[in-house]
Automatic annotation (TrEMBL):
Protein origin, superkingdom: Eukaryota
Name the UniProt record assigns to this protein: CREG-like beta-barrel domain-containing protein
Species, as recorded: Tolypocladium capitatum
Pfam families with a match to the protein in the record: CREG_beta-barrel
InterPro entries given in the database record: CREG_beta-barrel (IPR055343), Split_barrel_FMN-bd (IPR012349)
Domain CREG-like beta-barrel span(s) in chain numbering: 35-257
PANTHER family: ADL397C-AP, CHROMOSOME 8, WHOLE GENOME SHOTGUN SEQUENCE
Length: 287
């Protein structure tokens, strides 16, 4: 038994079956690395269910920004010197209101991400799957490794779960293996949506269904200048989980856009229902 084989067995989000419903079936009979298209189906479901994303942009060069008459480092925002070219990632609301793989964003123009885009920055939109329920069974890790690696005995402190957490008054906000779950980045650009009165109403209904508080800064509000923006996806980089069971790499943008609502609605991600189990090497049979 090679150590590499054991480590390879401690892997990813799910082996895929032949239909989206079973993409995350971890039984030994169906375990295989999902295709890029099957991963796109999972990604589109994550987009469809997600409320939050990280928008990454780059600060403009301070000298060129000042030349445009928008040197905000010396005005309201008071940006420090030397930020030009540095990236910044900020949380923002997101919705899937057009159902074509291009996320919908209600851009508040005063926001740093949108200022940077206005100054010429590219944008990356990153999402990750966060299960709503903790797993009923955690990944079995060191107990299996210890059987093959002598120095990993049960005496080591990291081989067992502590009986008492370090901060018993604070709940575990990540009661699962985050590295075992999908995350991905969408590369692209923001495009203003020229919404008619009818489509603007549809967008508002879709968006506030996910984000009820966003009704306070819909376009035309008295607080912030805002507008509907479409994030046009040009590239998709996917990390489905641990490498021997999950697809890791670029998903062709054509596949991303080809996924239908029927496809992503026909599957479930880990933790959408109570009682799920994280993948364990014990479930995969003898390595």
């Amino acid at each position: 038994m090679k150590l590499l084989d054991v480590v390879a067995g401690l892997s990813g989000v799910a082996g895929a079956a032949r239909s989206p419903v079973a993409l995350l079936d971890n039984s030994a009979e169906v375990t295989r690395i999902p295709t890029s298209y099957e991963s796109a189906v999972m990604g589109r479901r994550i987009l469809g269910l997600s409320k939050l994303a990280t928008l990454s942009t780059v600060f403009p060069d301070s000298s060129s920004h000042a030349a445009d008459g928008h040197d905000e480092s010396q005005t309201l925002e008071r940006r420090p010197d030397g930020l030009g070219g540095l990236p910044i990632g900020l949380m923002d609301y997101v919705a899937d209101c057009e159902d074509d793989g291009n996320p919908t964003i209600l851009a508040i123009k005063i926001g740093t991400s949108f200022k940077n885009v206005g100054a010429g920055s590219n944008m990356t939109l990153s999402l990750r799957w966060t299960p709503p329920y903790p797993p009923a069974k955690r990944i079995s890790l060191y107990s299996r490794l210890a059987a093959y690696v002598p120095f990993l005995s049960r005496d080591y402190p990291y081989n067992t779960v502590p009986s008492q957490p370090s901060h018993p008054d604070v709940p575990d906000t990540v009661p699962y293996s985050a590295a075992n779950l999908p995350r991905f980045s969408l590369l692209g650009y923001l495009e203003k949506m020229d919404a008619t009165e009818s489509t603007a109403t549809d967008l508002a209904v879709c968006y506030t269904k996910k984000h009820p508080d966003a009704r306070y800064w819909l376009p035309g509000n008295r607080i912030h200048e805002s507008e509907w923006m479409r994030f046009v996806v040009t590239n998709v980089y996917w990390i489905g989980g641990f490498g021997d069971r999950a697809y890791i790499g670029w998903i062709p943008v054509e596949e991303w856009k080809e996924v239908t609502r029927a496809e992503w609605e026909s599957m479930q991600l880990p933790g959408e229902k109570k009682g799920w189990s994280e993948w364990s090497v014990d479930q995969a049979g003898e390595l």
